[in-house]
Structures are given as C-alpha cells and as structure tokens.
C-alpha cells in the first residue's frame, strides 16, 4: 500500500486551516513556539500529538494546552487572547518580565503572527492601521517580532479588494524592521532572504503569475 | 517595614493621594485586584495615572474606575478590546491620555524601577512610531532604544495566598504582572484569596518575597 503523508494541497487558494496545517508541518520537533492572537492560534490544531512542540503564551506560561472545554474553564488560566486554556504536563508559569525575556533573549524558536503588510525587506506591519480614529494597541507584537529566532507570518496575500499585502515598502505603521523570515499565504509560501523574495511553494498559481500580480521580482525556490 | 494585614480593602487604600501613579496588576481579568480597585473608587482619589496591561474590561474593576472619571492617563500595551467600551468612549472624547507601550517594555520598565536600573537599551520597537523621539544606540550592529523605568506610587495586585510576612504565591497565568509591579511601587498592596500563617508557605515556592509587600487584604467574599 502506497500511503504518503501529503499534507500540502496543491489547489489554491488555501483556506486558513490549510495555511495553519502548512505552518504546523514546518515547525521542527520540540520547538518553543508562540502563536499570535487570531488565526495563528489555529496552527496548534494541526501539530501532531508527538510533535513535542512547546507553546509559549506571553502572559506567562510554557506548555500551554488546548482551549478549555465546558467544565475546564479556570479564570486564572488564559492565553494571550484572554481565552480560557488548559495546561499540559510539564507546564511552567512565570511573570511578565521573564516571559518577554524569553523572547528578546533569543530563547523562543518561532513565533507566528498575522499581518496587514510585509515588505520585501521583511518589515512587518500588524499593529495599527494608522487611521486617525483608530485606538492604537500593540500588546506583545513588537516584542515577539524582534525577539523570536524565526518569525513566520500567516496572512492572505491580497486584501479583499485585491491590494497586495506583500509590498516593496509598508504603508502602515511598522511593528518591526527586517524581522520576518517566512510568509505563509493562501496562494504561496515565501522566504524573505538577503537576495530577495523566494517562492517556496505555490497553490493554484505560478511564480510568474504572482510576480505580475504583486508587481515584485520573485525568485524561484532554491530548494 | 513589616507587612500590615488589613481587615478591609478600604483600609488598605485609604491613603492613596490624588495625582498618584497606580500600577494595577492583571491581564484581562486574570489577576486583576477588583476589590482593591472598588475600594479605590470609594476612596475617591482622582487625577490618577494608571499603569496596567489593558484599559479595563466591561463595567467592573479598572473600567469602573475609568468610568468615574478618576483617571487622567493610562499607560498600557493593549487598550482596545472587544469589551473596552468605557475606555474607548473616554479616549474618543479626548477625556483621557494614552501612552501605548509594547508589553515587554511595560514589564521591563517596571522591573528596572524595582531593581534600581536608571534606564536600559532595548531592541523592541526600534524604527517604529513607539520609539519616535527616543535615544537609540547601535550595539553589535543592532539598534536599541533607550527606555526609562516606570515607578508607581502605589501598586494594586492580585495574588493567590499570602502569609503574615507578606510572602506571596500566585496561581497559573494570574501571576502575570504581579511580581514585577510588587517591586516597582512605593506602597504595594496585595489582594489575596487566603492569608495563611507564617511558615505555611513553602519558602521554595514563594514568588514575591514579603520585603516587597506593604499591605495585604483577604478578599471579602472569602474572609
């Protein structure tokens, strides 16, 4: 029987759960990982039970478990999005200064963040639209962006009106400079490299088509 | 000075002065010292600067203090949430000042205050709106921003248990900012679920040593 573990659907565009599965596939065994608020939390659902991945939540916990079900809710135990969660065996609690020292000190292997825009230089914009009536709120995004050893972004490649979110320069206020390593989208996965943007995989499209739609030079995957 | 065990939250906050900087623990509602905040509302101190991760949730706790018009300025990382309508309305009406601080900087600036550090260079936020006007220095090729301590006149924190020496233990992610704030204010007041006899806490498990704690009050609904 020829059974392969083909996790990557080739048809695009991918849904958010498909993108989350791709990211989960690329997280190494035993990595320490922070999943940002919102869609990145979906990645946890796709990590294999034996992955050994340790989830960090910036409000002071390592080895966070899944969201609490009815009867498990404990007001003293939430994730960074204030959602009640659970603890896994081997969990540890710590205060906020230690939690952010784990980021800035280079102890966290990967963080996965959402984004409004990513630039070709790896600049990230994900905290503020800059709109005059918007109330700015940054949370831990800036600390994560510059702290984790690798920063993965999870986003759609275009806004609902078709505007690219992978851009020559961010127009939204920045979260961090040159901090993004890889961008997972519904149409392709990109690496931000010193030589430029390299396309790792495409879903239902081609590198040439994406280069045209993004109006950016793209490098094929280097393998 | 040894720790003062207060019979009631009103006694614990009786001397908070108008114009004080008040550090308020909690991440969302986890670890929020609601009874101390309610007592502060009854006490009437006004023109306060509140330092807390969020700017109030719903109608209780910090949100209730804001709603009474007692707070001149909020220093926080994440004011805008689904249920932060009290703050949102005050902010949009120009009735409250806001300083947004990246979450790790908020913690580390208080840690610095509590540890006697005059200022520190931190990479978080370099090149972003939140570092505008701040001194920077390039160290080993990386840009760091000079950040100053945040010191409180008063800290109001929530903990799980205290002994009669003021030693504190916390529970799960309700620990969050408590241990850092406990070091960073002139007068530190802890609301706890249970006061136990001296000797009843495992010294190896104490998170906040009593030297940092000035007053303890047991939650009224558990007394």
Automatic annotation (TrEMBL), chain A:
Superkingdom as given in the UniProt entry: Bacteria
Sorted UniProt keywords: Transferase
InterPro entries the record matches: 3-oxoacid_CoA-transf_B, CoA_trans_fam_I, NagB/RpiA_transferase-like
Pfam families noted in UniProt: CoA_trans
Family listed: Belongs to the 3-oxoacid CoA-transferase subunit B family.
NCBIfam families assigned: pcaJ_scoB_fam
Identification of the protein by name: 3-oxoacid CoA-transferase subunit B
From TrEMBL, chain B:
Pfam families in the record: CoA_trans
Keyword terms: Transferase
Matches recorded under PROSITE patterns: COA_TRANSF_1
Domain of life from the UniProt record: Bacteria
Protein family according to the UniProt entry: Belongs to the 3-oxoacid CoA-transferase subunit A family.
Record-given protein name: 3-oxoacid CoA-transferase subunit A
Species the sequence originates in: Streptomyces solicavernae
């Amino acid at each position: 029987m020829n059974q392969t573990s083909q996790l990557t659907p080739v048809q695009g565009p991918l849904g958010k759960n498909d993108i989350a599965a791709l990211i989960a596939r690329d997280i190494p065994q035993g990595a320490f990982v922070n999943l940002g608020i919102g869609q990145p939390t979906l990645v946890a659902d796709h990590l294999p039970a034996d992955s050994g991945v340790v989830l960090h939540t910036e409000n002071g916990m390592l080895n966070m478990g899944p969201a609490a079900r009815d009867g498990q809710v404990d007001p003293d135990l939430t994730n960074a999005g204030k959602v009640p969660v659970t603890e896994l065996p081997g969990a540890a609690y710590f205060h906020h200064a230690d939690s952010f020292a784990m980021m800035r000190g280079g102890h966290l292997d990967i963080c996965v963040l959402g984004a409004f825009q990513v630039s070709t230089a790896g600049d990230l914009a994900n905290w503020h639209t800059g709109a005059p009536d918007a109330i700015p709120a940054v949370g831990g995004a800036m600390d994560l962006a510059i702290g984790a050893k690798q920063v993965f972004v999870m986003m759609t490649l275009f806004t609902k009106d078709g505007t690219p979110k992978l851009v020559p320069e961010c127009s939204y206020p920045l979260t961090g400079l040159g901090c993004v390593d890889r961008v997972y989208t519904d149409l392709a996965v990109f690496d931000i490299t010193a030589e430029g943007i390299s396309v790792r995989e495409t879903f239902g499209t081609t590198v040439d088509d994406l280069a045209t739609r993004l109006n950016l030079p793209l490098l094929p995957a280097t393998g | 000075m040894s720790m003062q065990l207060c019979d009631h939250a009103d006694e614990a906050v009786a001397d908070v002065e108008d114009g004080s900087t008040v550090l308020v623990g909690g991440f969302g509602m986890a670890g929020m010292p609601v009874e101390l905040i309610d007592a502060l509302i009854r006490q009437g101190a006004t023109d306060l600067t509140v330092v807390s991760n969020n700017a109030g949730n719903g109608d209780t706790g910090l949100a209730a203090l804001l709603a009474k018009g007692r707070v001149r300025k909020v220093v926080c990382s994440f004011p805008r949430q689904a249920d932060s309508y009290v703050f949102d309305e005050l902010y949009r009406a120009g009735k409250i000042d806001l300083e947004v601080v990246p979450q790790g900087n908020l913690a580390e600036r208080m840690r610095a205050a509590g540890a006697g550090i005059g200022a520190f260079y931190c990479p978080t936020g370099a090149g972003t709106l939140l570092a505008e006007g701040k001194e920077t220095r390039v160290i080993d090729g990386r840009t760091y921003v000079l950040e100053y301590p945040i010191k409180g006149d008063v800290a109001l924190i929530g903990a799980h248990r205290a002994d009669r020496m003021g030693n504190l233990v916390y529970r799960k992610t309700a620990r969050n900012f408590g241990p850092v704030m406990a070091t960073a204010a002139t007068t530190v007041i802890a609301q706890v679920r249970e006061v136990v006899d001296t000797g009843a806490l495992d010294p190896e498990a104490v998170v906040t040593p009593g030297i940092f704690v000035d007053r303890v009050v047991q939650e009224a609904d558990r007394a």
